[in-house]
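isochorismate synthase
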Amino acid sequence: MALIPVTTNRIGSHLPLLDLLPDEDQFSWVRGSEGLVGWGEYASIRVSGKNRFEEVRTWWHKHLETFSIADSVHGSGTGPVLFTSFSFDRNEESFAFIPKVIVGKKGDKSWITWIGAGPQPTLAEAPLALTSQEFLWSAGTLSEAEWKKRVGQAIEKIESGSVEKVVLARDLIATAHTDIDARPILRSLAENYPATWVFSVAGLIGATPELLLRLSRGMVTSRVLAGTIPKTGDDSKDLALAGSLARSSKDLEEHEFAVRSVADALEPFCSSTNVPDAPFVLHLANVMHLATDVTGALIESKKDIDVFSLLKSLHPSAAVCGTPRNKAFDVIDEIEGMNRGRYAGPVGWVDARGDGELGIALRSGQIDKNQIRIFAGCGIVSGSDPDVEVAESLAKFAAMQSALN
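Predicted structure tokens:
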């Protein structure tokens, strides 16, 4: 059987990555001016069930065996790339795609990868003129009052000792007159939230501040976010709020649960790990988070460790599920009253070397023709107040709402 050519060439300066995307079959993982975008579907797979990570790995490796790769750039994200978006709950559908064309940028290096024997694809010379859409907002699965009641139920379970922390999510729905074009939404997110990773996979779009996993040359990094406070827009007030967040026993407790869950998940795969003693405050346009970067060096003798084995151990973390994980998941299943789909699941890319970056699909929305369903989640612990959690959810909705409006 003849192998299929996959070619990667260095290219000169070009448009911002998101300006290259067509209106369909689009994929993105962009932070600031760097990242990857892709378009065209060479191959795809849908999976569900407890073995979904292994099934995607097997499918990806089978395709890699059919490729003849000519890569003159040699770096993380060059050559063929898999974009993937996994569901939060293993019983829901997860997606993986190999795009026909990928354009990447890192530092002063830009490149293009394409599959097939054809000539190098031509890139657009100017951004497309995109018109914004108007949206009509409606309640999601639960009303605000009903969701607040569910938060109270979660607090009761925590105070009874059944579980230490539970993350509860809610949704809102926006409807347009015509099918939704993701591109202006992605560009708005990138402009207003440059510290986040702006993603698009199979209609799930968003700007996540939380990097679940970066694997590069045997080094693994995971950015943990837990503990949130809304910003006011007044610098002096926000500085004081940042200080109160860093001292908040409730938020520090929530953060510690999340950091511990990630460190424990990585420990069996690493010869050494580094967990900072205290979090830093990450400032975004709409909120501030307590943040910790957990890092580790993979055990060199274990050749079977890859992105997929790490994902299986890391997901779901306490930041999107709770502590203990299995008990928190049961509580979510019992009282959340909503299907998360791929919200709060891993989203990102993996290359042919096994390097990759995957975030947690937060600050996101799922597009279905002329409708988009956006999500927000809050970590509930012993000191939580339902009114405060409602306010936090509204602050987290603001990223997608402002991008749509």
